[in-house]
Amino acid sequence: MALLVICAALSAVLLVDAAVRADIGTALLLAPWPLLVLWSIYVIGVASRVRPQRDGVFVQNLLRTIFVPWARVQQIRMRWQIEIALDDGSQITCFGGPATRRPQRLGPGRTKEDANERADDAVAALRKAKAGATPVTPVPPVRRGWDIPSLAALLVIVAWAVAAVLITRG
What we know:
Helix content: 40-55%
Number of helices: 5
Largest sheet: 4 strands, antiparallel
Strand content: 15-25%
CATH architecture of the largest domain: Roll
Shape: elongated
Number of strands: 7
Distance between the termini: 38 Å
Order of helices and strands: HHHEEEEEEHEH
Structural class: alpha+beta
Protein backbone atom coordinates (compact mmCIF):
# COMPACT_ATOMS: atom_id res chain seq x y z
CA MET A 1 0.00 0.00 0.00
CA ALA A 2 2.86 2.37 0.81
CA LEU A 3 4.35 1.78 -2.64
CA LEU A 4 1.02 2.71 -4.24
CA VAL A 5 0.80 5.94 -2.24
CA ILE A 6 4.40 6.90 -3.06
CA CYS A 7 3.92 6.17 -6.76
CA ALA A 8 0.61 8.06 -6.81
CA ALA A 9 2.27 11.11 -5.26
CA LEU A 10 5.16 10.90 -7.71
CA SER A 11 2.75 10.56 -10.65
CA ALA A 12 0.74 13.55 -9.46
CA VAL A 13 3.91 15.65 -9.17
CA LEU A 14 5.01 14.66 -12.68
CA LEU A 15 1.60 15.41 -14.20
CA VAL A 16 1.35 18.78 -12.43
CA ASP A 17 4.84 19.58 -13.67
CA ALA A 18 3.79 18.70 -17.23
CA ALA A 19 0.69 20.88 -16.90
CA VAL A 20 2.75 23.82 -15.60
CA ARG A 21 5.61 23.52 -18.12
CA ALA A 22 3.47 22.76 -21.17
CA ASP A 23 -0.30 22.85 -20.74
CA ILE A 24 -3.16 20.79 -19.40
CA GLY A 25 -3.70 19.12 -22.79
CA THR A 26 -0.16 17.76 -22.74
CA ALA A 27 -0.64 16.52 -19.19
CA LEU A 28 -3.82 14.73 -20.25
CA LEU A 29 -1.95 13.07 -23.12
CA LEU A 30 0.75 11.89 -20.69
CA ALA A 31 -1.64 10.79 -17.91
CA PRO A 32 -2.51 7.25 -19.12
CA TRP A 33 1.05 6.00 -18.74
CA PRO A 34 1.54 6.73 -15.03
CA LEU A 35 -2.06 5.64 -14.46
CA LEU A 36 -1.26 2.30 -16.10
CA VAL A 37 1.71 1.89 -13.75
CA LEU A 38 -0.47 2.78 -10.75
CA TRP A 39 -3.13 0.32 -11.90
CA SER A 40 -0.50 -2.42 -12.16
CA ILE A 41 0.85 -1.68 -8.68
CA TYR A 42 -2.69 -1.74 -7.30
CA VAL A 43 -3.60 -5.06 -8.91
CA ILE A 44 -0.33 -6.78 -8.00
CA GLY A 45 0.25 -5.32 -4.55
CA VAL A 46 -3.04 -4.16 -3.08
CA ALA A 47 -6.09 -5.83 -4.63
CA SER A 48 -5.22 -9.41 -3.68
CA ARG A 49 -6.71 -10.25 -0.31
CA VAL A 50 -8.30 -12.90 1.88
CA ARG A 51 -11.38 -11.84 3.81
CA PRO A 52 -13.41 -14.11 6.08
CA GLN A 53 -17.14 -13.46 6.03
CA ARG A 54 -20.07 -14.79 7.99
CA ASP A 55 -21.01 -17.40 5.38
CA GLY A 56 -17.65 -18.11 3.70
CA VAL A 57 -14.26 -16.81 2.72
CA PHE A 58 -13.64 -14.29 -0.07
CA VAL A 59 -10.32 -14.62 -1.90
CA GLN A 60 -9.05 -12.23 -4.53
CA ASN A 61 -5.95 -13.25 -6.46
CA LEU A 62 -4.95 -10.43 -8.79
CA LEU A 63 -8.05 -10.02 -11.00
CA ARG A 64 -9.79 -13.30 -10.09
CA THR A 65 -12.30 -13.46 -7.25
CA ILE A 66 -13.40 -16.62 -5.48
CA PHE A 67 -16.05 -16.99 -2.80
CA VAL A 68 -15.96 -20.29 -0.94
CA PRO A 69 -18.78 -21.21 1.48
CA TRP A 70 -17.45 -22.52 4.79
CA ALA A 71 -19.11 -25.91 4.20
CA ARG A 72 -16.86 -26.44 1.16
CA VAL A 73 -13.65 -25.69 3.10
CA GLN A 74 -11.91 -28.85 4.28
CA GLN A 75 -8.62 -27.46 5.52
CA ILE A 76 -6.88 -24.10 5.97
CA ARG A 77 -3.12 -24.22 6.24
CA MET A 78 -0.04 -22.12 5.77
CA ARG A 79 2.58 -23.38 3.40
CA TRP A 80 4.25 -20.50 1.58
CA GLN A 81 0.95 -18.66 1.54
CA ILE A 82 -2.48 -19.45 2.92
CA GLU A 83 -3.89 -22.49 1.16
CA ILE A 84 -7.52 -23.54 1.34
CA ALA A 85 -8.35 -27.16 0.51
CA LEU A 86 -11.89 -27.68 -0.79
CA ASP A 87 -14.20 -30.66 -0.50
CA ASP A 88 -13.83 -31.49 -4.22
CA GLY A 89 -10.06 -31.96 -3.83
CA SER A 90 -9.11 -28.63 -5.39
CA GLN A 91 -6.95 -26.10 -3.64
CA ILE A 92 -6.91 -22.31 -3.58
CA THR A 93 -3.65 -20.47 -2.92
CA CYS A 94 -4.30 -17.02 -1.51
CA PHE A 95 -1.90 -14.45 -2.95
CA GLY A 96 -3.29 -11.66 -0.78
CA GLY A 97 -2.69 -13.22 2.60
CA PRO A 98 0.48 -13.21 4.60
CA ALA A 99 3.34 -15.32 3.32
CA THR A 100 5.99 -17.22 5.18
CA ARG A 101 9.49 -15.88 5.00
CA ARG A 102 12.90 -17.31 5.32
CA PRO A 103 13.81 -18.27 8.85
CA GLN A 104 15.25 -15.26 10.60
CA ARG A 105 18.11 -15.12 13.01
CA LEU A 106 16.77 -14.83 16.49
CA GLY A 107 18.13 -11.87 18.38
CA PRO A 108 18.14 -11.45 22.12
CA GLY A 109 14.66 -11.58 23.59
CA ARG A 110 13.03 -13.13 20.49
CA THR A 111 11.58 -16.59 20.37
CA LYS A 112 11.00 -18.80 17.37
CA GLU A 113 7.25 -18.24 17.67
CA ASP A 114 7.71 -14.49 17.08
CA ALA A 115 9.24 -15.08 13.64
CA ASN A 116 5.96 -15.45 11.67
CA GLU A 117 3.24 -14.24 13.96
CA ARG A 118 1.17 -12.44 11.29
CA ALA A 119 0.77 -15.54 9.12
CA ASP A 120 -0.27 -17.68 12.08
CA ASP A 121 -2.80 -15.03 13.17
CA ALA A 122 -4.39 -14.94 9.70
CA VAL A 123 -4.78 -18.72 9.56
CA ALA A 124 -6.16 -18.76 13.10
CA ALA A 125 -8.67 -16.02 12.22
CA LEU A 126 -9.87 -18.01 9.20
CA ARG A 127 -10.18 -21.20 11.24
CA LYS A 128 -12.08 -19.33 13.98
CA ALA A 129 -14.48 -17.85 11.41
CA LYS A 130 -15.06 -21.32 9.93
CA ALA A 131 -15.70 -22.81 13.37
CA GLY A 132 -18.19 -20.05 14.20
CA ALA A 133 -20.16 -20.33 10.95
CA THR A 134 -23.67 -21.71 10.99
CA PRO A 135 -24.24 -24.69 8.69
CA VAL A 136 -26.27 -23.95 5.56
CA THR A 137 -28.18 -26.55 3.57
CA PRO A 138 -28.04 -27.03 0.69
CA VAL A 139 -24.39 -26.11 0.46
CA PRO A 140 -23.94 -23.28 -2.04
CA PRO A 141 -21.38 -23.69 -4.83
CA VAL A 142 -18.00 -22.01 -5.02
CA ARG A 143 -18.41 -18.76 -6.97
CA ARG A 144 -15.58 -17.64 -9.22
CA GLY A 145 -15.49 -14.35 -11.05
CA TRP A 146 -13.48 -11.33 -12.11
CA ASP A 147 -12.69 -8.04 -10.41
CA ILE A 148 -14.99 -5.98 -12.64
CA PRO A 149 -14.06 -2.50 -11.28
CA SER A 150 -10.34 -3.13 -11.88
CA LEU A 151 -10.99 -4.46 -15.38
CA ALA A 152 -13.21 -1.47 -16.15
CA ALA A 153 -10.47 0.89 -14.95
CA LEU A 154 -7.96 -0.92 -17.17
CA LEU A 155 -10.29 -0.60 -20.15
CA VAL A 156 -10.66 3.15 -19.57
CA ILE A 157 -6.90 3.63 -19.17
CA VAL A 158 -6.11 1.60 -22.30
CA ALA A 159 -8.72 3.52 -24.33
CA TRP A 160 -7.24 6.78 -23.01
CA ALA A 161 -3.73 5.63 -23.96
CA VAL A 162 -4.85 4.65 -27.47
CA ALA A 163 -6.57 8.02 -27.89
CA ALA A 164 -3.43 9.81 -26.67
CA VAL A 165 -1.26 7.93 -29.16
CA LEU A 166 -3.70 8.62 -32.01
CA ILE A 167 -3.86 12.32 -31.13
CA THR A 168 -0.08 12.72 -30.97
CA ARG A 169 0.50 10.73 -34.19
CA GLY A 170 -2.30 12.37 -36.16
